Fold this sequence. Notes:
Largest sheet: 3 strands, antiparallel
Shape: globular
Radius of gyration: 22 Å
Number of domains: 2
Number of strands: 3
Amino acid sequence: MRSIHSGQAAGQAAEAEEWRSAITTTDEERIYVRGLAVDAAIAHESYAAMVLRLWTGRKPTPQDAALFDACLVAAIDHGPLAPSALVARTVTSTGAPPMTGLAAGISAFGPLHGAAVTSAMRTLVDLNDVANPASWARLVFERERAAGRRIHGIGHRWHSIDRRSERLLDLVIEQGRDRLVVDRVRALAAVVGEHAGHTVAVNIDGALAAALTSLAVDPVYGDFAFALSRVAGLSAHIVEESLRQRPMRLIDPTLVMYDGRPPEPLDAGDGDSDRHQVRQEDR
């Protein structure tokens, strides 16, 4: 029988080599993630803690896990009009399997929706020789404006104040972490607001960027963090679409009406209840 290639190999790509991974190993009975047996982690480590262990290679503290868990809660959903949810529902409407709808929703992530956290993280750690947050923000604003680039992490088309973002930023400070990244992202929002002539929110990308930076997570994981969170929301939209709507429907995003549970009363200190918006969109 003739070999699939009978000639001489042209380069090293044709040769298999031993390679390394520091993530996971197994034996006859166990799976170890960054050295921790998964069966030992069950009921002792949270999902958030395990993800941080995977991403950083370190054992997270309970505070670390709590902050990352808050990140996952903060970005969990933003309604059926978010581009990824609308795409997932459209694909589901064709009769495609649920995982195909999920893959389609994730594929809709881009720099204007769902894939801006990494960029925002890199911005927050740029120009580190500028200590004053207000001065730093003006330098970043002028540089990005001159280059014609969008400043990720700032601004929202529906919210002048994004309560999710503010709560997440407050939590970073409450945990006693270095607040420089929080001060920077808020200063940047203030500078953009001055230029726009109205209040501009720190959006969920900016809040996640600050929180993840304070956790010493590599910026490359920023967009993955958003995706991990939003997969839960997308799955709910996919299932609801398949159960409540007719197949191959014409989906008009302006005609969706909310008929779920009414907003729950907020506890004192949780924010102004009259700011709650039932109809949501964007991120």
